[in-house]
Hints:
By secondary structure, the protein is α/β, with parallel strands linked by helices.
Amino acid sequence: MELCTHNLGYPRIGPNRELKRALESYWKGDSTLEALLQTAAELRRQAWTRQKAAGIRWIPTGDFSLYDHVLDTAALVGAVPSRFGSVGEEVSVDQFFAMARGLLEREHEHGSRGIPPMEMTKWFDTNYHYIVPELKPAQTFRLSSRKPFTEFLEARQSGFPAKPVLLGPISFLRLSKMEGNEDAASLLPALLPVYQEILRKFDELGCEWIQIDEPALVLDLSPSFQHALTVAYSGLRSSAPRLKLLLATYFGPLRDNLETVFSLPVDAVHWDATRGGAELDSVLAAVPTGMILSLGIVDGRNVWRNNFSESLRSIEQALAVLGRDRLWIAPSCSLLHVPVSLEGEKRLDPEFRSWLAFAYEKLHEVVDLARLAVQDPASLSTLEENRRIQDARRRSGRVHDPAVARRVAAVGPLDLQRTSPYPTRKKAQRSRNPLPLLPTTTIGSFPQTPEVRKARARWRTGGLTTEQYDSFLEGEIRRVIALQEDVDLDVLVHGEFERNDMVEYFGEQLAGFAFTEGGWVQSYGSRCTKPPIIFGDVSRPKPMTVRWSQFAQSLTKKPVKGMLTGPITILQWSFVRDDQPRSVTARQIALAIRDEVADLEKAGLSVIQIDEPALREGLPLRRADWPDYLTWSVEAFRLSSSIAADGTAIHTHMCYSEFNDIIDAIAALDADVISIESSRSNMELLRAFAHFRYPNEIGPGVWDIHSPRIPSVEEIAERIRRALAVLPASALWVNPDCGLKTRNLAEVVPSLRHMVEAAKRVRKELEAKRESTS
Ligand SMILES: Nc1nc2c(c(=O)[nH]1)N[C@@H](CNc1ccc(C(=O)N[C@@H](CCC(=O)N[C@@H](CCC(=O)N[C@@H](CCC(=O)O)C(=O)O)C(=O)O)C(=O)O)cc1)CN2
Ligand code: MET
Ligand SMILES: [Zn+2]
């Protein structure tokens, strides 16, 4: 018999983003709740059918979500902030969506100002966003959803071997936001009884295995959380004596949590062998007699075909210690983070395609490995084939480009440094482009209207010629340049209409990158991205953005900002090579962006923005690993930007970030101007910059673009004044929090007018003050 297999989670969005369409149509009011739930049920059944067909023994249930699994968990335990109303027997679907998306004024029955949604943040080091549970010190919990049970029964009644999945209590608390920043671990005594009740119910239903996800175990845990962990699992164990508990950890090695994890009273531990590999010996030494180890050997975070020979080495080592009955095979983590299947990819080159495995194909790898582990003769051909493919990839001419290797090797310290220090550069920049105090600008994108997306879709499918599409884009650029001049912004942008996405667009044009037709991955709620795949040495065959920036600049006398995505963000939001360190790939991308910076400069652009919104989320999960990452990522940014002459202003932009703990690294980027998101925290974020005496210019966001609300002039002026309280006026810019691509023009035009008006109002106040003191 082959080794036992299981899966931790499957993509929810559907093979053709069916869930996205169903959700958006329901939200718009174009379809009923029944229709949405029907689509959701069909997608679940389809996912289970596929997993069973692949040969997986235990199939996850409850991993599906209409929006996000952390929000599901908050609903499950009744952690519903009071602004969303009281909870009846169950959290309703509309209450659930209100928590995720907020309610607009007109949707809100009690009138007033609408209700802000809960916050959203990155799920560990992925590009998936979860909804942050909001807890308070006296928080109470109550079982408030039947979802886990319904989905379990739905699967079992249809004959699927179901294994329910829950986000565990420790991770739930650790990922929550506690009012007053108190320690959320203190809520365990209140929360634990609800988890116990859930386990008891599953036990009563005759459920055999339950998977409890505790990815927080790969983070640095405070003593209070370490203690809570032990308390939680002995409590869970005693609540359901027959139910078998599988504790799942993933996304990194366990390090100082390793001993504790294997001493918990659970029946099995799932461990991520792709990220924790070096720990295998310690793990095998720590697994107590009688406990099962689930080996997460197929990488759920990447799209490469598994290297069977390498995996079998680890599997054999584990088998020797544990024997066949105590070793399971699985993907490293939920398959949520990879595209659904390769089947839809008709245009990929066959050789390249053979190097890949998406979610569905990964399940086959799990099953193949479980068979190969016991030398099942029927599986031996899969090993042969796998060896052939790995060899071909290793030797492939399309992976290695000697010119790139030479160029990377030749990078020296001077390539990482602008010609002059910032004060000299600022003089050169201002004499080239005189700007008023508190200059105004935007972050880059203007609304990506359905017309823009439709035009691109028609061009892709041949309905528009390239000429027609290009002239459509030029028309859009003309419109936004005229708009920005009319509004009287100081530094203009071209609007990014040519981009489907700020990373995918560059991936499509760089050598060493491949892109898919339908490789969608959920980003948050109904929103998806199609991460490009970096398979080889990266270079830039020809200019990527110059024509659009140059065209925009030709339409106006005001400076236009060239607009690029930085090397770390491109790296972080792509699937990366697994055959060289990320730092090397980052350097290669940096050199390609550097070439683009040089060409934008030659084309006459005097301001160039290099976006790095993913710099913060790329931080390793453990603090001990931060310095190394920050060194090479800062170097990559500097390599991409330092080619610029003193008189060219380099801007950068970051959003969704907490900056306090990486402020040194941000300063080390040495961008002339950084724009950051800050209006949601009411400029609190700026404290780090003020405290640190950030040396260059800063544009704190003064308009929250995540909300459709149009901010008033006075409200924006007040935010500028708050910024002025901690930063010198000479260093301050005025801009929104982020790009405007997800907004519509009806919101954008008045908001921009208010922003410029507010900047002018505060400028006058500053001038008046200056006169009165001189
Ligand atoms: N890569 C990446 N990661 C990121 C971000 C980001 O901007 N990029 N931002 C943060 C996350 N924020 C996000 C914000 C919005 C969307 C988003 O809106 N995604 C779009 C897809 C954007 C896209 O690539 N669109 C394609 C169109 C693909 C498409 O659906 N076309 C239609 C046809 C178009 C039509 O007729 O309307 C179809 O195929 O059916 C394009 O513009 O070309 C979506 O889910 O709807 C995603 C992430 C963090 N991570
Ligand atoms: C997620 S950061 C986005 C920056 C980009 N330049 C934009 O405006 O859309
Ligand atoms: Zn942004």
